[in-house]
Design a protein that fits this description.
By secondary structure, this protein is mostly helical. It contains ten helices and no strands. α2 crosses α4, α4 runs antiparallel to α5 and α6 runs antiparallel to α7. The longest helix is centred in the middle third of the chain and has 29 residues. The relative contact order is 0.15.
């Protein structure tokens, strides 16, 4: 496996994984049907959630899984840095912005990881803690404060928990070969429409 990772080249594998995560986080159903805000903050939150799902699986894999995860985190942060510069943020302000982004990303990573672990320990379908974290971060509301946000948050939490379970059964080689098995978001959007 280590030979496969190094044989294809770290940069190629990591770029493919990053591109896949970005594409998964921008699927229209997330914004149209699950009501993720289609804003800079909303896209950051959606990207972070999807990245966490991949990273927690990579970190739990045998070598070189944790190494791939670290390279992926570095690449994600490098892309954030580049995006700030492309938006015209001055060189002196980028480090301060990056510090905020890194802290937000790491904080959400810890919250989502703990909530996903708790949901899986109880049983798939029991995502209250995860839904509360999603309401707070993705929908910028507190649980119970925004009835519109709470409902899609439950569906987004179910999607994230299902994704985590799918990933848990996916071998590292699948990620290295660039075939991340994202579930269909539309299935969770249909549940909203039908309820």
């Amino acid at each position: 496996m280590i030979r496969l990772f190094r044989g294809r080249g770290n940069a190629v594998i990591i770029d493919c994984l990053h591109t896949d995560i970005v594409a998964a986080s921008r699927r229209p159903a997330l914004y149209l049907d699950l009501a993720v805000p289609d804003t800079l903050d909303g896209r950051f939150e959606c990207l972070t959630l999807h990245a966490v799902l991949v990273l927690r699986r990579l970190q739990s894999c045998e070598a070189p899984g944790p190494e791939v995860a670290q390279h992926l985190v570095d690449t994600i942060f490098a892309h954030f840095d580049r995006s700030f510069r492309e938006m015209g943020v001055g060189d002196t302000s980028v480090p301060k912005r990056m510090k905020t982004v890194v802290e937000a990303f790491l904080g959400r990573s810890a919250a989502y990881d703990a909530a996903l672990s708790a949901a899986q320990a109880r049983a798939l379908g029991d995502e209250d803690t995860l839904a509360a974290a999603i309401v707070r971060n993705v929908y910028s509301a507190r649980p119970g404060e925004d009835g519109r946000a709470a409902h899609p948050a439950r569906r987004l939490a179910a999607y994230a928990a299902t994704t985590g379970t799918v990933f848990d059964g996916t071998p590292l080689q699948t990620f290295i070969e660039g075939a991340v098995p994202w579930p269909d978001v539309g299935a969770f959007a249909t549940e909203i429409a039908g309820s």
